[in-house]
Amino acid sequence: MAKIYKEILNLSDRGEAIALATVVESLGSSPQKAGAKMIIKDDGSTIGTVGGGQVEFTAIREGVEAIKTGTPKLLEFELKESEGLLCGGRMKIFIEPILTDPHLYIFGGGHVGQALSKIASTAGFEVTVIEEREKFITSERFPEAKELILGPYEKIIPNLPLNQNSYIVIATHSHKLDEIVLKGCLKRDYNYIGMVASKEKAKTIFHRLMEEGVSQERLKEVHAPIGLAIGSQTPGEIAISIMAEIISFRNSRGGNRTKG
Description:
Layout (H helix, E strand, L loop, with lengths): L1 H12 L4 E11 L8 E5 L4 E3 L4 H17 L3 E7 L9 E10 L4 E5 L3 H12 L3 E6 L15 E4 L2 H4 L9 E5 L4 H11 L6 E4 L3 H13 L4 H4 L2 E2 L11 H18 L8
Parallel strand pairs: 6-7, 6-9, 7-8, 9-10, 10-11
Antiparallel strand pairs: 1-2, 1-5, 2-3, 4-5
Helix pairs in contact: 3-8
């Protein structure tokens, strides 16, 4: 049992959203007794067990759904041989989502990135800023950010702990770099991804990436132009429109996108 709790802490520290399945009632002959626990990750992988067979299959399915919606659920089972278990009895399993704060990754430490970091932090997001230019990524510019990463985008992206709790905003100082970052991030997992670009520039970048083998379905996930249409002009207004879109997306989708 201590191992399960240790894994929960480790996964939470890494920013991974999970669900915990706990057997809360076990009557008659059942594969696990009350208190048995299983961690369910957003990809359906597990740590621990609540008994195997159809019971565990259902618990995993409901656990993945709970991570998406943030809603706990109580499952009740009448155990029969036809369900793949050579036993009879009843079980109740409580599915509890354990969600960490959403994490926003901002590529680009310019004026928009600086304003977005402040607003995102206020909205409850942990913020990581990634930038290639040393003078644009200082603690003075981003005092609220959890992490500042300096270096080439191409080398940094593969090592970021991106997952279904990750939100990505691409706002570098050049369209060439935007394209490099977008291509790298589309190979990773995330919940939301958006890029600061005009419709024409986004169309051009998408066309080039499709020629390089990026699927149209994957590119449809990219919010570009990014942000709600509120007539924003200044970096602060643009940052507000971006954050408003991210919050709207997060709330309407139950917190997680369908994995590509």
